[in-house]
Amino acid sequence: MIRNKSLVSINDYNKEDYLAILDLAEQCEARPVSNIMQGKVVATLFFEPSTRTRLSFESAVNRLGGRIIGFSEAGTSSVTKGESLKDTIKTVSNYCDLIVMRHPIEGSARYASEVSGVPVINAGDGANQHPTQTLLDLYSIRKTQKTLDNLVVIMVGDLKYGRTVHSLLQAMSEFNTTFHFVSPDELKMPGEYKMHLENLGLKYYEHKDFTNILPEADIVYMTRVQKERFSDPMDYEKVKNVYVLRSNMLEQTKPNMKILHPLPRVNEITEDVDDNMKAYYFTQALNGVFTRQAIICSILGLDQK
Amino acid sequence: MKKDRKHLSVSAIKDGTVIDHIPAEKLFNVISILGLDSIPNQITFGTNLESKKLGRKAIIKIADKFFKETEINKIALIAPTAKLNIIRDYEVVDKRQVEVPDEIIGIARCMNPKCITNNDSVITRFRVISKPRISLRCHYCEKITDQEHLEIL
Q1: How is domain B103-152 classified at the CATH fold level?
Q2: Does chain B have fewer CB atoms within 10 Å around its N or its C terminus?
Q3: Model ipTM?
Q4: Interface contact A84-B116, CB threshold 8 A
């Protein structure tokens, strides 16, 4: 079902697809280095820089024995000469088996998938979608909790603009999740996502600070509250220290609880948390490589065994 | 007797299309969307007519004009209550309820300024996620354009 199909949005996959990818990612983790991509070329087209995501994809391809072509910012491509996205994609799709694309314009990945001769993986299109991040989040959750069902997930920070929390909410809503949203008023979870949960009969609770909900959590998903999201800088000053996770806040939390963060982190998780067993964000980044290997293998129809 | 007077206020056409039950305040939008201000056909319209359903309605009669489905879709987006009567030789030969389709291609603008359709020469495409109060989900950027922000191209 996934084979030869582009992955543009988390909505392109259903629950079965998620689980198939996660199972394959487990196999990739067990055997991260192989040669099954020998002779395959992946183009990583990064119209805006995202070092972390690009390196994760390139690491995934390299460890499977594939080759990489591409560019890491639009300045070094023919885009600066005024070439349209359509022409770039149509040309590059002649040179490769798969395109991995990052672009600041929302919807660009869907459009690219429609003009491309090869499948396209969306590595982020503006504030819209970043589906491989969501799948690696799911992988990290299942790996640490041994299940995806009936978990309590606390999402913290910028829930209005954060695409990672929106996509994760959509994906986790398939697994009877209970959600807690912790954010300033300015950055609350948009109504359409809350309505989505209501339609499914799932429970969610909104909070302005952590209060005493941390002990309930199986997963705490942290995101960065950015200054530029506030129209009044005073509003930012008021809340900037409210959405910070510190080591002493973890004392009453469940033993299985894990802290996730899509990274990069700035100050929303203090460094003293890093040494805590419940800090999982760096391993989460490693899981990204296995998950991306699984996605690439599924789309190219490569058998990991 | 009453019926006869009504006939007077909207005189008959021999062949063409009557668009009835347009919300009165949408009349000029409908005229502009269908490009009726720039066609040579004979057109009569009435507005602020009494309507039990709409309060005040408008009606347009266009002689010798028969709409294609895509044109009708354009009307449906701003005047979903509109009804079309197709007239041949003074008789109503077909009645069509204007319906909002499930998918809308190239008619509305996506309200997201960062959407590819507002930045590149890409034709807009939406899934209609709610009717009759229109709500459209962009096929590209996945953002929702609601009735309030609906702009016809």
Answers
A1: SH3 type barrels. (2.30.30)
A2: N
A3: 0.88
A4: no
